[in-house]
Amino acid sequence: MNGIFLDLSVADEVNSAVMGFVQAHGEFFLAIAHFLLTWMLVPLERALLATPAWVALPAIALLAWHATRRIGVVVVLTVGLYLIGSFGLWDKLMQTVALMIVATLLTLAIGLPLGIWMSGSERLRNVLQPVLDVMQTLPTFVYLVPVLMLFGLGKVPALLATVVYALPPLVRLTDLGIRQVDASVVEAAQSFGTTRMQRLFSVQLPLARPSIMAGMNQAVMMALAMVVIASMIGARGLGEDVLAGINNMDMGRGLQGGLAIVILAVVIDRITQAYGVGKRQRELGAKKS
């Protein structure tokens, strides 16, 4: 029955092309990996691990209070993080947070300029839209293969895979937010003689802030969704316990790791969502509660 099909396999050609690319540019990618590890991920991870929990928990509580202005939310989030420590997962929590912070910073560094550029160029938007569609729909393990070939196992491929996965919503929502700014407001600013950069930073970005913050929130949530997959390729953290629980049929360990990831997701979601609204709205919400 299979004799009716033509042999159209491209596996050998793709493997040959990727291997040639790795041989030609391997040193460049090793330099990137060294920079990310030496100057970003490892120092941040060490700093977080060296910070005592009795310092970190009040600091996070203050951040939550500054974002939400709701004491009940602050108490719930702080108790949730304390529960992670009580599971014996505090160090792994800090490793996961370090990976997420660096991944989020890289996503912002790439996604915000791309979204701003995309909002001002219809041609670029037409080019990037299908690329972003592919990035969002492509199964994670598909783009892990070339990343692993370029960087090997470890934290760097996990970091870059997380960035690829988290980038599209930030780019899309930044573009959408700027495009939805009222044209009359932009024209009014232009009539006062403002430059393009002044209009961008003084008018468009502030008015697009809710959309951009929603994109940042989605990017962070998608980065957190990569925690378990990242643990499969050498990144340590909370996903390590979930993976170990699955591999060893240790349901208790897997459940604790999964619950810790859920708590961290709730903490990050509540804080980033709160910063997505204006300060006055947060204060009004706090008064009503």
Automatic annotation (TrEMBL):
Record field: transmembrane: 20-42, 47-65, 71-90, 97-120, 140-167, 219-238, 258-278
Entry keyword annotation includes Hydrolase: no
Top-level taxon of the source organism: Bacteria
Location relative to the cell: Cell membrane
Keyword Protein biosynthesis appears in the UniProt entry: no
InterPro entries, sorted: MetI-like, MetI-like_sf
Membrane topology category: Multi-pass membrane protein
Keyword annotations from UniProtKB, A to Z: Cell membrane, Membrane, Transmembrane, Transmembrane helix, Transport
Gene3D superfamilies recorded: MetI-like (1.10.3720.10)
Pfam families membership: BPD_transp_1 (PF00528)
Residue intervals of the ABC transmembrane type-1 domain: 93-272
Main location: membrane
Family: Belongs to the binding-protein-dependent transport system permease family.
Name of this protein: Proline/glycine betaine ABC transporter permease
Native source species: Variovorax humicola
